[in-house]
Automatic annotation (TrEMBL):
InterPro entries given in the database record: HnRNP-L/PTB (IPR006536), HNRNPL_RRM (IPR055204), Nucleotide-bd_a/b_plait_sf (IPR012677), PTBP1-like_RRM2 (IPR021790), RBD_domain_sf (IPR035979), RRM_dom (IPR000504)
Transferase listed as a keyword: no
Entry superkingdom: Eukaryota
Name under which the protein is recorded: RRM domain-containing protein
Annotated source species: Daphnia magna
Coiled-coil regions listed in the entry: none
PROSITE patterns with a match to the protein in the record: RRM
Basic and acidic residues bias (residue ranges): 16-29
Polar residues compositional bias, start-end: 1-15
Pfam families referenced in this protein's UniProt entry, alphabetically: RRM_1, RRM_10, RRM_5, RRM_8
Length: 522
């Protein structure tokens, strides 16, 4: 069956009848280049965005139509040259893949996908995918356009991330050629080079926004302006997997070589790590070049099963076995005992994890035990809140030897200093993969406000803060979403107190304000 017949507006096939009504296709002679590309054997659950991303490396995508009932899709490129490049690329031995399935790319019998004016367009999802593609094309001013080199930024790096960890993760998508790691603006970053644009594109689509560990070490990926990496040394900071004989940069190690198992001269990098061969040094037990094979990450880490291309969505790339050296309980001291309460500590520490219990010590009221839901949340809270000024005193946060916080026994004096929050409705991270994990920032003088009703004005919000004895310096609604706003206070200490007081503030009968720290300023 020709793909022209599949999408003819006169088609009676039930599976794609609705989609066929939404476009008009101008037929053309078969077997000739067309700017419309026909893609067959697509998975049933594939999205318009994934189809669009197949075409982005070759040029601007102007329209998309997905016929899920027929496992087919059509992609319209801005010009015929882009479509020719795409078809030639996937016809030259490189398989196109979507969610681990090989798909087939060929020219369509149609010259264009035309919008039927009686319908909005193919679908809202298609429009969103095309707008995202156009935004991506416009990013070349601040970052590179689609190419073989990716720039990777690791946010919220609670645990160490090494070059080897990145190699194992990014090798799941395809063969990694080179990696260079560095620190810029106190943030760990890396440049990763793939052999071709399509593999780099797949890695960006698959891994951007994923977490290496649960709730932290988030990957932010963009295209680099560099088209190739020049690696001089193979060591813990940089690696050229195509040239394992590069020196390490350590003169003591580079001065001698070690003979490998079969009389092969090992590289200086192998000498440094006691590796048997260049293949072992570069690839370990990883499956390189894509495909569905599992691999082993260093130090007992593991990646969830299945192909990396199936790992779309909010699920983290959780590295199992990695826990904090301590448990989920923190010892917090040097508190202002006249002002601090279990609820205040619940709200503040709840910015970085779900607080289960808080106990202010009965005989030492400037000290508290705070039990978080998980050890990594305790680590996050300690990282961001230790030495923070709260109510005029610099609090100290450190791991506790206690494994949990006990509720007082019946009849034991407590004066309300111990509270259980396990069933609180105010936990921010109850949902797996919650977006709140991606918005964890250090305390700052600017607060992020959300859940604002549409009828509440700037003046009302500022007046609420003023009535609570805070002095807002600036305020700004989000231009495209008035449910959110930024409010700036005079200092970090004032903002911390404001967050504690104003989080869950009732703005209307059915709306309570949500407050967190912002990475932005006004």
């Amino acid at each position: 069956m020709s793909n022209g017949a599949v999408l003819s507006p006169q088609s009676n096939h039930a599976d794609n009848n609705n989609d066929a009504k939404k476009v008009k296709l101008e037929p053309r002679s078969p077997a000739k280049p067309s700017r419309v590309v026909h893609i067959r054997n697509i998975p049933n659950d594939v999205t318009e965005a994934e189809i669009v991303h197949l075409g982005i490396p070759f040029g601007r995508v102007t329209n998309v139509l997905v016929l899920k009932g027929k496992n087919q899709a059509f992609l319209e490129m801005a010009d015929e040259g882009a479509a020719i490049s795409m078809v030639n690329y996937f016809s030259s031995g490189t398989s196109a893949q979507l969610r681990g399935r090989n798909v087939f790319v060929q020219y369509s019998n149609h010259v264009a996908l035309k919008t039927d004016q009686s319908h909005s367009n193919a679908s809202a999802a298609a429009q969103a995918a095309l707008q995202a593609a156009q935004a991506l094309a416009g990013q070349t001013e601040t970052q590179g356009g689609p190419n073989t080199v990716l720039r990777v930024i690791v946010e919220h790096m609670v645990y160490p991330v090494t070059l080897d960890v990145l190699f194992q993760i990014f090798s799941k998508v395809g063969r990694v050629l080179k990696i260079v790691t560095f620190t810029k603006n106190n943030t760990f970053q890396a440049l990763i080079q793939y052999p071709d644009v399509v593999t780099a594109q797949a890695a960006k689509l698959t891994l951007d926004g994923q977490n290496i560990y649960n709730s932290c070490c988030t990957l932010r990926i963009e295209y680099s302006k560099l088209s190739s990496l020049n690696v001089k040394y193979n060591n813990d900071k940089s690696r050229d997997y195509t040239n394992p004989t590069l020196p390490t940069g350590d003169h003591n190690l580079d001065a001698f070589a070690i003979t490998g198992g079969a009389g092969v001269l090992a590289s200086p990098f192998q000498a440094m790590h006691g590796l048997a061969s260049p293949l072992t040094a570069a690839y370990g037990s990883a499956s390189v070049g894509g495909g569905g094979a599992d691999f082993i990450l260093p130090s007992g880490f593991s990646l969830p099963g299945g192909s990396a291309s199936a790992a779309l969505g909010p699920a983290a790339l959780r590295l199992s076995g990695q826990q904090c050296s301590s448990g989920a309980v923190l010892l917090v001291s040097n508190l202002n005992e006249e002002m601090v309460t279990p609820d205040a500590l619940f709200t503040l520490f709840g910015v970085y994890g779900d607080v289960h219990r808080v106990k202010i010590l009965f005989n030492k009221k400037d000290t508290a035990l705070i039990q978080m839901a998980e050890p990594h949340q305790a680590q996050l809270a300690m990282t961001h809140l230790d030495k923070l000024k709260l109510y005029g005193k610099q609090l100290r946060a450190m791991p506790s030897k206690h494994q949990g916080v006990q509720m007082p026994k019946e009849g034991q004096p407590d004066a309300g200093l111990t509270k259980d929050f396990i069933n609180s409705a105010l936990h921010r991270f109850k949902k797996p993969g919650s977006k709140n994990y991606q918005n964890i920032y250090p305390p700052s003088s600017t607060l992020h406000l959300s859940n604002i009703p549409p009828n509440v004005t700037e003046e009302e919000i500022k007046n609420a803060f003023t009535a609570a004895n805070f002095a807002p310096q600036a305020f700004k609604f989000f231009p495209k979403d008035r449910k959110m706003a930024l409010i700036q206070l005079g200092s970090v200490e004032e903002a911390v107190a404001a967050l504690i007081k104003m989080h869950n503030y009732q703005l209307s009968d059915s709306s309570h304000l949500r407050v967190s720290f912002s990475k932005s300023t006004i």
